[in-house]
Amino acid sequence: MAVDLLLGLQWGDEGKGKIVDVLTKDYDIIARFQGGPNAGHTLEFDGIKHVLRTIPSGIFHDKAMNVIGNGVVIDPVVFVKELEGLDKFKIDYKAKLILSRKAHLILPTHRLLDAASEAAKGKAKIGSTLKGIGPTYMDKTGRNGIRIGDLELDSWKEKYRNLADKHEAMISFYNVDVQYDLDEMEVEFFEAIERLKELTFIDSEEYFHKAIKAGKTILAEGAQGSLLDVDFGTYPFVTSSNTTAAGACTGLGIAPNQVKEVHGIFKAYTTRVGSGPFPTELFDETGAEMAKVGHEFGAVTGRPRRCGWLDLVALKYACQVNGVTQLNMMKGDVLSGFKTLKVCTAYKYKGETISHLPYNIEPENVTPVYTEFPCWKEDLTKMSNPSQFPKELNAYIDFLEKELEIPIKIVSVGPDRKQTINR
Ligand code: IMP
After folding, report:
1. What are phi and psi of 374, to 5 degrees?
2. Which atom of ligand 1 is nearest the CA belonging to 223?
3. Which of 173, 247, 379, 423 is the most buried (most CB within 10 A)?
4. Does the C-beta of 129 come closer than 6 Å to ligand 1?
5. Which backbone phi and psi does 302 adopt, to 5 degrees?
6. What's the CA gap between 110 and 132, in Å, rounded?
7. C-beta 224 within 6 A of ligand 1
8. What is the CA(75)–ligand 1 centre distance, in A?
9. 136 CB less than 6 Å from ligand 1?
10. What is the pLDDT of residues 154-192, one digit of tens each?
11. 254-258: long-range contacts, CB 8 A cutoff, minimum separation 24
């Protein structure tokens, strides 16, 4: 059987957690393939709101197995808190959650290094979530990292000490004020490691190989968004992993020819949290209204998200890089009652009008070219069928489908599982 992918097409926070949760009933296995606790996937059902960080969004379903793949970075301290958060739902995570031995560990000193590195950047800071993501992936590619599988070896603590000592020396090189008590952090860390060891560690490539052979259905759940991809995003204002489709292959150990459907998730407008270029950003009341109505605050850091119009140039690029086969549009309900809607269909760039994403998209290099639409007035949140959609919403959807040449299969009209409309 095949593997389907579910990916964010903007700068993260598109609502991937909700859609994975909605789709999980159709899959045997849900797998995370990159990122770590910088993610905050929000799920709402039965009046409960829950935010997942590293654990796949299939954990609330009875049937699905949840796998944390080799491409993920795990902070044991955050992870154990996440497990404890599941206790009240009586979820048997020891049976339903398994971890790749090749996933890397975020150490306390990785978090400190993140803080030191950001502080040293001053105004050029990335706006990292400061969860230690960048330094952990640096150690992975630098071949210094500690992996989940190392915890099964007696020598891992020696390896840990050497790496933590090296990190402390590096922190002092940054010459910034980072206050910390490593002894205290390590007590929490080693306790969390013991809890982590109660879970099952697997050779995940072998696991997926067998699962595919046995005809199991697999959904790979992306974190962050395509424009935060370390290669294809707005570098250096990106995260440190491949958030795009190719990352699912390297982050799980599945071959490209096993991938079938690619679900691309996007909001009906655009948001970004942290620094970096954002051509369609709004600095006026309209942007403030999007933020207010859409509750645009980071699920992990609580930071306000920057808001702006839908950028079709960037969205088309994300669809191409990922090979998106079907689209899911989120949060159209937030725009109800706006006077007009704008969609960026091209950029003015170096005296020309272009429709592809260029190397430089800083405000001084690109000016968005907009197409305007009348907006729908109706409250979409109670709707349950596309036949109820106002004509302005249908016109918006038709326009996007025509431009992107990909069908919009799901329209989400609110945070709850039930507020999901199939077209
Ligand atoms: P880091 O991955 O925590 O180092 O953050 C790098 C950049 O990616 C920052 O601009 C963050 O705000 C952004 N970022 C990281 N994770 C997420 C996410 O899950 N949603 C939205 N933005 C994110």
Report:
1. -70, 145
2. 19
3. 247
4. yes
5. 75, 5
6. 5
7. yes
8. 16
9. no
10. 999 999 999 999 999 999 999 999 999 999 999 999 999
11. 254/3, 254/205, 254/208, 254/212, 254/218, 254/220, 258/2, 258/3, 258/212
